[in-house]
Amino acid sequence: MDKETWYFIDSGNCSPAYNMAMDEMLLHWHSKGAVPPIVRFYGWNPATLSIGYFQKVHKEIDLEAVNKYGLGFVRRPTGGRGVLHDQELTYSVIVSEEHPQMPATVTEAYRVISEGILQGFRYLGLDAYFAVPRTKEEENQLKNPRSAVCFDAPSWYELVVEGRKIAGSAQTRQKGVILQHGSIILDIDEDKLFDLFKYPSDRVRERMQKAFKNKAVAINELKSSPVELKDVSKAFHKGFADGLNVDWEPYQLNDKEENEVWELAKSKYELEEWNFRR
After folding, report:
1. Secondary structure class of 162 (helix, strand, coil)
2. Residues designated catalytic
């Protein structure tokens, strides 16, 4: 079977507003047929707390702690919970809902796209597998998460190694296009992460943080010698190609496209009306 060619973009480290604007513009351009499906890798400057589209900032987020740590802050166009983007490779996948390889349901499309992440972990020598709830109780827990912290629990088809979640992803569908983006974590600073959220009491925080250690893990916790970002990027570049069965065409935005991304970043993702809307 002939392989399809998708664009591959490596943006490097960008501002929080630029990162979200770029993902949204790629979705927009793909919906117009201006670009083929795309996989994008990126990082964050500064390290950033991103929150899900539906999260309530003042109820869930400790903004003083966000400022104390000098973090960026942005609301994603996708759902899900808070993510600290620091020592990680972030990816996004933009592909039409009508693509022949994309199942109609969100959950199954998630599995198909996440096959690239699975293969990436395997290229790093990690025995990753998909999380699928075994009982009705586990399924209900996934539907009704109590924590504002994204890595607190695996969702359907998220990636797990040795029983612990190792990648977090979120998805939205707009204009007939799927946008899925997520974090591939090299190292987690758990204290910093848990400082960024509000809790009913110190005891609740302590209990949640303790439970977190058993539920989530970073790549370098599982490796006998630490891997560097460039090695992770290389493994997932190959992993996504194999998982999606595609060839890559490296792509860089032209000046007009760059300007459109910056305009959207300034008119939406940098604004308090967007980031603090709930």
Report:
1. coil
2. 150
